[in-house]
Write a structure and sequence with these properties.
Elements (H helix, E strand, L loop, with lengths): L4 H4 L22 E3 L1 H7 L2 E6 L9 H14 L4 E5 L3 H13 L2 E7 L5 H9 L3 E5 L3 H13 L4 E2 L5 H7 L1 H10 L5 E5 L4 H12 L5 E7 L18 H6 L3 E5 L1 H15 L9 H8 L6 E6 L7 H7 L10 H8 L3
Parallel strand pairs: 2-10, 3-4, 3-6, 4-5, 7-8, 7-10, 8-9
Antiparallel strand pairs: 1-2
């Protein structure tokens, strides 16, 4: 039986005996070796596979703490602005807690897999005419009225939960890796990783990878023009790397074809940065933040169409051989 993340790291989280634990079995996600990519890049590459979380992304780490603390304060509803993963996670944990979830998302900008999750969990989903930043401003304003608890990463309890990925990585490896690589959308996970390292009194290179065109990137989960944590990230000892959509898509395909792991495009941003400038000989952990089934439409746009053949062994063999 999986130990809830809050129970596993209770002494490192802002919870007490009176905090009701809202859990779906999050955390304790696999740390997977990537032998073929390691050989290609000249590094010892490990992949923190966060799609193993209940809603399919790393957001569950912070959401279990944020919703538990909201419930402790007597909240009857949560609210978030989202490009998809936060919404799916908030909706799932609100359903688990028996409270309402209100999701504000940019109009037409959320991948179908994530939207399906939010709707199936019973969240009230509203499309905002504008960007993610417009949706977040509205969510914050509504939360200030006291009717909803904000569960975006501006909620400090979200960051507390997300730092536990660092603890798990170090526990698994038995040491701090030379380099951590994470995608950079709003910056919350970057801040969380820095916080985790600080609490362990450890140092490592922390590389945060953003899309070159934040407003229109194919990587919808990091399609955030104005990162909420930009000023905090700038104050940290963090290296910011920038990659193009073409580089993200190439790394995305390589991860699937060489290591058998299907992630959403934004999760491949870190791998794209490593491909451009691999730290030769270093032990590197790249965090894969969300599952590929979150964004099936992106895969459909770039993957080849299946061939249609007659149910004949010779025809099938010829098609398989590319004849």
């Amino acid at each position: 039986m999986t130990v809830p993340l809050i129970e596993r790291f209770r002494d490192r989280l802002p919870v007490g005996a009176e905090t009701p634990i809202v859990s779906l079995g999050e955390g304790s996600t696999p740390l997977l070796p990537a032998p073929r990519l390691s050989e290609r890049l000249g590094v010892e590459l490990w992949l923190k596979w966060e799609p193993a979380n209940p809603s399919g992304s790393y957001k569950d780490r912070g959401m279990t703490v944020a919703v538990s603390k909201a419930l402790e304060r007597g909240a009857s509803a949560v609210i978030c602005a989202s490009t998809g993963n936060t919404a799916a996670s908030a909706a799932a944990y609100a359903a688990r807690a028996g409270i309402r979830a209100l999701v504000l998302q940019p109009e037409g900008a959320v991948a179908s897999g994530k939207l399906a999750q939010s709707l199936m969990h019973g969240a009230r989903v509203l499309e905002v005419r504008g960007s993610f930043d417009d949706a977040l401003a509205a969510a914050r304003a509504l939360a200030e009225r006291g009717t909803h608890a904000l569960v975006n990463s501006l909620n400090p309890h979200r960051l507390e939960g997300q730092k536990t990925a660092v603890f798990e990585i170090v526990d698994e490896l038995g040491a701090v890796p030379d380099v951590f690589v994470v995608p950079y959308g709003g910056g919350g996970n970057t801040v969380s990783y820095a916080k985790g390292l600080s609490e362990l009194a450890e140092r490592a290179r922390l590389v945060s990878v953003q899309a070159a065109d934040r407003r229109r990137t194919v990587a919808s989960a990091i399609r955030i023009a104005e990162p909420a944590h930009r000023e905090v990230v700038a104050s940290l000892d963090v290296e910011i790397s920038t990659v193009t959509d073409a580089q993200i898509l190439e790394a995305w395909a390589q991860l699937a074809k060489l290591e058998g792991l299907f992630c959403e495009p934004s999760s491949a941003a870190g791998l794209a940065a490593l491909t451009l400038d691999p730290p030769r000989g270093a032990r590197v952990v790249a965090t894969i933040t969300g599952h590929g089934l979150k964004d099936p439409d992106a895969a459909a746009r770039v993957a080849p169409e299946p061939l249609v053949v007659d149910p004949d062994p010779d025809a099938i063999a010829a098609a398989a051989a590319g004849a």
